[in-house]
Records
---
Amino acid sequence: MATENYRIVRCPHCSNEFEAKFWSVVRGDIDIDLKELILNGEFNLLMCPHCEKIFKYEENFIYLDPSAEILAFVMPDYYEMREDLVEKLKEDYLSIKGHLSAEKKLNFEPYYLFGVEQLVKLLKNDTDIQEETDVIEFICFEKKLKTKKINKIKAREKDLPFILPYSESLKKGDLLELLNEIYSGNKRLKRIKNLMEEIESIEDEIDFLDED
Ligand SMILES: [Zn+2]
């Protein structure tokens, strides 16, 4: 599924040129090997075929994982200083958005990331949230509680789990009581505490749930 591109690159060690392969789109849910390379910090590395030295070379790419609600434009980190380039990219995105939306559930806001390290941080943080979510899911199973999906973009932003446990109602008071009970038995679940704080601050409707 990944989209490949070729480009002539000059080796910073021996100054010879060679053709290198890049990926312009990486599907995080499908291109598992490429996702591994990203997580291992090897995605940006090129090996010169002339001197066999390895060096870092960054190119723009899109990281897409609809199931995780991630659409990320990953740019070289020096782009952070180049607002004009970022603006151009955002315009490009708007022009392809219609095409991308044809794919189910792709109506979420993109992330603009500078340097693949920011993507790694996001992915590792997601693993962290998922681990805590798995524990909460198990507790809900044991306590025969129901769950609703929390919007992943909001969960990342506010450091919440990916699910909201509930019993009968989604009323603020009932939710707080239930979450407090879960948290009292499992003080390590810091995202349950964050969830309580978040719900406490809500005026009317909960606005961070995904549709079932
Ligand atoms: Zn070289």
Note: Residues 125-200 form one domain.
---
Amino acid sequence: MAGRETDRQTVMQLLNDRLVLERVKLDALFPVALGVRPAAVLMIPADLPDGQDLGRLVDQRFSQRYYVGTDPAVPWPASLGRRLRDAGLRAITSPVAFKMRILSEVFQDELSGFDSYLALFRWARRLGLDTYEMDVRPTIRELYFYQDPAVLPRLQALASRRREIRRHHGVIRQNGVNTFTPFPEDFMQDFVSMAGTVLGYPRCCVEAAASERASNVAPLEIRSARQIAALRAAGQEPDPYAFFVAGFVPCHPRCEAAAAVGHQLEASLAGLDPRLGDLYTRGLAKNLEQVSRFPELIREQEERMRERLEAGLAQIAGDDQAG
Ligand SMILES: [Zn+2]
């Protein structure tokens, strides 16, 4: 960012841009541009303000193309060629591979014209950042921002390690039972450690996360929520600065190394503009709240799923009686 006036203008314009979520600006774009974090990652489409709309569009187009064989987004006569090609593909690939292929094509096509996704690349360029994308699932993508060219080979190594893990492990052992997982890399010590390090997480927190994930215990948030509850029961409070970006879980709710990153981020953002510092500080309380309420949120989600299931079963029973 060159020149103080351009800086001010850029900061204000990004701050006011509704195509980018506030936490993406504060946790990812500004910190990487300021050099406080080596890299930051977003999940696409979850980290887009209108990610759910994208999901719906992809679902609709996928269903049309997969079940009916037509694609409303492709005009005739190109649609005819597409139909023939799809029919050929369907004949020579497995049903799962065919489905994944269609899904990822539709996703890629929708994404390449999606405003809030394109806005991220415009901002990256304007802030002098580079981007790197990794496909995680046919309709989920990771988007990394970084500034130092030395980060690129580390991201490439991460991507190639993920591909390698996926080739060899689709199934993990959970509570003594073999369970299929679409994200086996999340349970591999070296992968979790590489990913955490490139994102600028403190070593103690990375090591704790990597060994816990490898031994396949509960999600990190559950462990952290328990630590927070134990602290509070002992009359102590967690340090919100240790929860320095959304999605990060410190090894301990009062981890000093993690809190130091939080203070550094706050000071750098406030140095750019006091408003950024204030917004960031408010975000810390949200991050902490999110982790401490995690078990509750999971329970609520399970409750809703059970209610839906029971309502469905009641409906079936009712239909049976009526019939
Ligand atoms: Zn730590």
Note: Residues 15 and 257 are 28 Å apart (CA to CA).
---
Amino acid sequence: MTHAQCCICGTNITERFWACEACERGYNLPRSYAEWPEWAKLLQRDEATRRRRRDHEIQVIPISLLNRAEAAQVDRLLYGDGDDDD
Ligand SMILES: [Zn+2]
């Protein structure tokens, strides 16, 4: 599992923070993210996106692992009903 990262240097940090202590101090970032300078907010948004993706990772299952019924269902989902084969 991927950890939360500091949005500036990428070091692993606690989930509820956006920047590590070193960066907060080094860049003199206010405690509250709302008061961050624009460049830091941009980085924060990137990290927020990354965390969202991480939390909603899409499971990829090769279609060859599906049984026939499931494969047919996927077919319908992908291509819609109305094919008259089978
Ligand atoms: Zn950092």
Note: The pocket of zinc ion is lined by residues 6, 8-9, 11, 19-20, 22-23 (CB under 6 Å).
---
Amino acid sequence: MKTSSLFLVWLTLSLWSIVRAQAAVHSACVDASVSELMIYNVLTDQEPQDICQLARIPAPHTASLAALKEVHARAAALFAIPVKSLFPQGVKIAINASAEAPNGHYDATPHSISLDIPPYPKSWVNKGTYAHELGHWLANSRHPQLNPAFRGSVGSHLLSETYADAVMMALTMTTEQLYDLPACLNLPAIDDKWTYTMGLGFIDGSFNPYRTYQCCQQTQATPQAQAVCDFKAETSGGEAPARPSAKPFTLRQYSAAFDDHYIGRPMLSFLMALGKKLGGNFYGQLLKAPAPAIAHRCTMTGVSNQVTVAGYRLSGQLNAIQGALTPAQRQVYQALWKAHAMDTAIAIDGRDFAPRVEQAGMKAFILAVPADHECKDILQSRGLQMENPDKCLVSCQQI
Ligand SMILES: [Zn+2]
């Protein structure tokens, strides 16, 4: 009697938790490894809603979830990690239909992705943009099977955006021409033509706002394009962006103020050219290439304990890729290395190395300090911007 009543209690509680779990997140979201899919449609009066909390998924978002599921499945296959292990809690996503498109953001706290798409979209998920943001998500994941050198790219001006693009390219996705926008308003496609000897305007990324501005000077045929151009004109006060410098880029001009989305482009071009000549997915190889861990001990002002973190150099990863090639393939690799002036990438990575290790130190301190420690919030919100420069300062030394 006692056993059976306990069993009934257990059964009732189990059934209740199953019912509650199903009510919490729609099974189609669970199936796509999506924990939340907030939809903000700023041009309608519709309240923002989490699609995953609805009893029935609205028609356009069945396609959104299918697109998200596809990107997740490709990422799992790339890293050879089962999809449920790579995304154990699912990914938290927001989609904004607004004139701020095309854009995407990854937010480290609370580890979520948002996509800005043009108003009145035909399709709500641009798989290329999502794959790029998922690249940030994965680099910030603590999954033990992900390459520590890839995860160590967080906080690098050169590598953070470049590795996010490498994830997009490794999953064979592109942002090109997927929006309801003309080509000149889409994000510029990655090709194999970029080198570190190109004009400064390309390497610092200033060509792109100029390109967009020129595009908007032409008559826009679609209401989506017109809305995007009106928004850009409004936010820039109607002023034309500076003409990009055509002077050849040299390492002396490198500055952390460059647009991080473009300083790694010649490196992505190099990887694309390698893939074309030798066959194979060199973006994927880079993301998975091991590099020697360079141990550092970090201290933080106002805190007595220390943390130990590892730094990984880009040269370590690229050497691993080259080391796996045959002598004939290595000759192709070296010729392309020269053509893309890849020594510059290594030099930029050298300048970028110390801030990257510090970022790893900050992350380690966020975990190490108690929840109520004043540095916790400061470190979490700081990222690469050094607000409160005299507080909670992390510095690291190689050991
Ligand atoms: Zn990004």
Note: The CA atoms of residues 177 and 267 lie 23 Å apart.
